[in-house]
Amino acid sequence: MRAAAPAVVSVYTQRTERAPASAFDPFFGPQRPRVQQGLGSGVIVDSQGHIITNHHVIAGSDRIRVQLSDGREADAAVVGSDPGTDLAVLQIRLPKPPVMKLGRSDRVQVGEVVLAIGTPLGLSQTVTHGIVSALGRAQLGVAVYENFIQTDAAINFGNSGGALVDFRGELIGINTAVLGKDLGAEGIGVAIPVDLVRGVMQEIVQHGRVIRGWIGIVTVDVGAEDASRVGLAHAGVAIANLYRDSPALEVGLARRDIIEAVNGAPVRNAQDALARIASHKPGSTVKLEGLRGTRRFSVDVKVIEAPAETAQ
Q: What is the total count of domains within the chain?
């Protein structure tokens, strides 16, 4: 913990909102812009001062300032942001910043002891203790691409973007959200696994954005009852819609087609299907296998880069 905590920083954001024009403006003058302050956490991950935090922590900010555990402060520049995973990369220019060692989330086990480090409610360098409650949590409505680590370590407002570390003090996840608080639930926090964080950061540092494969389909999970009602052969992942001029439309894919496999691997749910397609590089092809009515199909679809608006 002593090695990990100094690399967790407090992230202070400032956003200026201009009030809409009012009928009273000619009499009293235009209203002054309102400045909103935001709070989050971040993790320094290399000696160049790159910081990982959540996209929702810094989205729309005019100014981002970071405070280290040793009291140093610096303005942070946004290297890039990825709404699809709710991750962002910042950079500060300070000599010898403390660096968090990255672990491996593919080795994390349910029941493993973890620590959450961040700035909840403005209290910097706060550490809470818990276990890994579950792995592979998805379809929570937090981000487009979800594969969360669930933990019961206390996570509160201001913890977003902070570190989830294992008993070695290595980063295994970026704390992102607390679920069910409006329903009175406690101890259900989720973190983005570090293996996903590592890949997103590499893409952002190299390209300024995450480059994902896309074929232009909107997928939905269809239960047995709904499948019967709309005339599908069985429950599963169905195409709900297609984008105009998309590769999927060009090869003849259609609404209500059921997707059973991507490149030979069975799909678990709608989000899994899109994630598998997104992992392919633009310019490659992906094979979809499925069912249209009572007829099976197999089609190769050209993969292009996902438009920015599809990852919102």
A: 2
Contact 138, 184 (CB under 8 A): no
- Taking only the tens place, the pLDDT of each residue in 92-104 is 999 999 999 999 9
228: annotated active-site residue: no
Among 173, 202, 231, identify where a domain stops.
202
CATH number of the domain that 243 lies in? 2.30.42.10
CATH number for the domain spanning 174: value is: 2.40.10.10
Active site residue 246: no
Question: What is the per-residue DSSP string for 222-282?
Answer: E-HHHHHHHT-SSSEEEEEEE-TT-HHHHTT--TTPEEEEETTEEP-SHHHHHHHHHTSPT
- Which residues, in sequence order, are bridge partners of residue 236? 222
155 part of a folded domain: yes
Q: Token pair of 174, please?
A: 């970026």
Catalytic residue among 55, 56, 61, 124: 56
Q: What is the pLDDT of residues 55-76, one digit of tens each?
A: 999 999 999 999 999 999 999 9
> Pick the catalytic residue: 82, 86, 152, 257?
86
**Domain boundaries, position 233:** 213-311
Q: Which of 41, 105, 133, 160 is catalytic?
A: 160
Last residue in a domain, options 175, 202, 229? 202
Q: State the alpha helices, DSSP H only, in the chain.
A: 25-28, 55-58, 194-207, 224-230, 247-250, 270-278
Give the tens place of pLDDT for each residue, 254-271: 999 999 999 999 988 888
86 a catalytic residue:
yes
The DSSP result for 132-151, as a single string, is: EEEEEE--SSS-SS--EEEE
> Dihedral of the CA atoms 248, 236, 278, 172 (nearest 10)?
170
Q: Report residue 122 as tokens.
A: 């403005």
